[in-house]
Design a protein that fits this description.
With 305 residues, the protein is an alpha+beta fold. The chain has helices at 28-32, 54-68, 76-90, 161-173, 217-228, 240-244, 275-289, and strands spanning 8-11, 14-17, 35-45, 48-52, 95-103, 117-124, 136-144, 178-182, 188-191, 195-200, 203-206, 232-235, 248-253, 257-264, 267-268, 299-301. Strands 7, 8, 9, 10, 11, 12, 13, 14 and 15 form a 9-stranded mixed beta sheet that branches. The two termini are 29 Å apart. It catalyses: L-leucine + 2-oxoglutarate = 4-methyl-2-oxopentanoate + L-glutamate; L-valine + 2-oxoglutarate = 3-methyl-2-oxobutanoate + L-glutamate; L-isoleucine + 2-oxoglutarate = (S)-3-methyl-2-oxopentanoate + L-glutamate.
């Protein structure tokens, strides 16, 4: 992934040159994973660039921080204004955004109380996080999501991403595109950084947060779009065999978008991109581009700065 390091990053209240957005080696989050993050997208629309579901992303950042007892020094509206300011300053027509709040350098040790919170927002071009022309090849990882009483699955925190990184590396080393992780009880959880959906007999199904899956904003978007298309949706536990037997499987995420799955554990699916997957991908593109007026309330125009 090539990043334009001539751009700027919003860091603790100011726009700074990319190479000057630095932290101390004894930063608490670097040693103990005490941070929360959001991945957000800016899409090109007929009226200029717009951030998709910015309010929902920042609300989740705030909830995640509260669950981890990380005090945010900025209000949601301040971070929204900073996000728009950053995108405008970098001149993006479309891009990926990374919001990050983390405990910085204050004291060493597990005690979180003496480390200040830093907040950053970065933007870069990230056109295709998962690229698979004929659909993704998934494998079930030997790594599983942790027990929900170990780390709150509803918090999008930095530390638990080690689990995802190990699963993704395992899948890549084995020649697959992405990893599917199971919950501690063996039910389907999610992929390393995407929610997973299964379609069978016209019904759209996706695992709940209780399976260790992050309740994704793109996931919520697709469930809303599906209901508006008259599709029956169910958020319920799935077994791996439910995916093997599905008519269609796809994954979704802010970075990935909507990506069809061609196979799981070397079992080919009936269609690499089924009809419902295509309809939802089209509806998602229409919503993010502003082409469908029903969903324009999800867009925050950058020109409003």
């Amino acid at each position: 992934m090539a990043i334009d390091e001539s751009s700027v990053i919003w860091f603790d209240g100011a726009l700074v040159p990319w190479r000057e957005a630095r932290v101390h080696v004894l930063t608490h989050a670097l040693h103990y994973g005490t941070g929360v993050l959001e991945g957000t997208r800016v899409f090109e629309t007929a009226d200029g660039p717009a951030v998709f579901r910015l309010d929902e992303h920042l609300a989740r950042l705030e909830r995640s921080a509260r669950m981890l007892r990380i005090e945010l020094p900025y209000k949601q509206q301040d971070l929204a204004a900073a996000t728009v300011e950053l995108v405008a300053a970098n001149g993006h027509r479309s891009c990926y955004l990374r919001h990050l709040a983390f405990l910085g350098y204050g004291s060493m040790g597990l005690d979180m109380r003496h480390s200040p919170t830093s907040v950053s927002i970065a933007s870069w071009d990230w056109p295709a996080y998962l690229a698979a022309e004929r659909g993704l090849r998934l494998m079930t990882s030997s790594w599983r999501r942790t027990d929900p009483n170990s780390v709150p699955p509803a918090a999008k925190a930095t530390g638990p991403y080690l689990n995802s990184a190990l699963a993704r590396r395992e899948a890549s080393d084995a020649g697959f595109d992405e990893a599917l992780l199971l919950a501690p009880d063996g039910s389907v959880s999610e992929c390393s950084s995407e929610n997973v959906f299964a379609v069978r007999d016209g019904v759209l199904r996706t695992p709940p947060g209780s399976a260790g899956a992050l309740e994704g904003i793109t996931q919520d978007t697709l469930l809303t779009l599906a209901r508006d298309l008259g599709v029956e949706v169910r958020v319920e536990n799935l077994l791996r065999s439910d995916l093997y037997a599905a008519d269609e499987v796809f994954v979704s995420g802010t970075a990935a978008g909507v990506v069809p799955v061609a196979s799981l554990d070397n079992r080919e699916l009936p269609s690499a991109e089924g009809e419902l997957t295509k309809r939802l991908a089209q509806a998602y593109r229409a919503a993010t581009s502003g082409a469908d007026a029903r969903y324009r309330h999800w867009l925050t125009p950058v020109r409003s700065a």
